[in-house]
Design goal:
Layout: E1 15-16, E2 25-31, E3 42-48, E4 63-65, E5 68-71, E6 77-84, E7 87-92, E8 98-103, E9 108-111, E10 118-121, E11 128-135, E12 139-142
Antiparallel strand pairs: 1-2, 2-3, 3-11, 4-5, 5-12, 6-9, 6-11, 7-8, 7-10
């Protein structure tokens, strides 16, 4: 019989935000192998400082930058939930123009399959605390 699993945030190792240096903030992959196997869901906590993005401009076709590579499965969908701080959700429209909408505490951003290049940018004066979750889980490979 299955039982609930408690994962305490303070027990999860912090990692640099992919594609950024330590000055950007950190990410904690709470529900992610090898810590825990799920049926495809992932869940991460992030603190991102002003002027940075928790996940720089990217598409869900694949992403690679210094130190990591992400392979997204077909049908990937994602949610960003802002706990604290201010930012803008930015995406590239079909005509190449960058669109953006402000986000703040209590806002959830749903990124369905097929959204073009996008990022959440912390353009506010304080650190953004946020959660990122979605499914099916992408494969993240750290490159050294």
């Amino acid at each position: 019989m299955a039982r609930p699993i408690i994962i305490r945030l303070e027990e999860v190792s912090a990692q640099p935000i992919p594609g950024a240096g330590p000055e950007a903030g950190f990410m904690k992959r709470v529900l992610y192998p090898p810590r825990i196997e799920t049926q495809g869901l992932f869940f991460a906590y992030c603190e991102c400082r002003p002027g940075f993005s928790p996940h720089r401009w990217h598409t869900h076709q694949g992403d690679q930058a210094e130190g990591y590579r992400v392979e997204y499965p077909p049908g990937f969908e994602e949610v960003y939930y802002v706990i604290r701080g201010q930012g803008v959700m930015q995406w590239e429209r079909a005509d190449g123009v960058i669109a953006e909408l402000p986000v703040g505490p209590g806002d959830a951003v749903f990124i369905p399959p097929g959204v073009p290049r996008h990022q959440l940018l912390n353009n506010g004066p304080e650190t953004i605390q946020m959660i990122g979750c979605g499914q099916p889980r992408p494969k993240v490979t750290l490159i050294k």
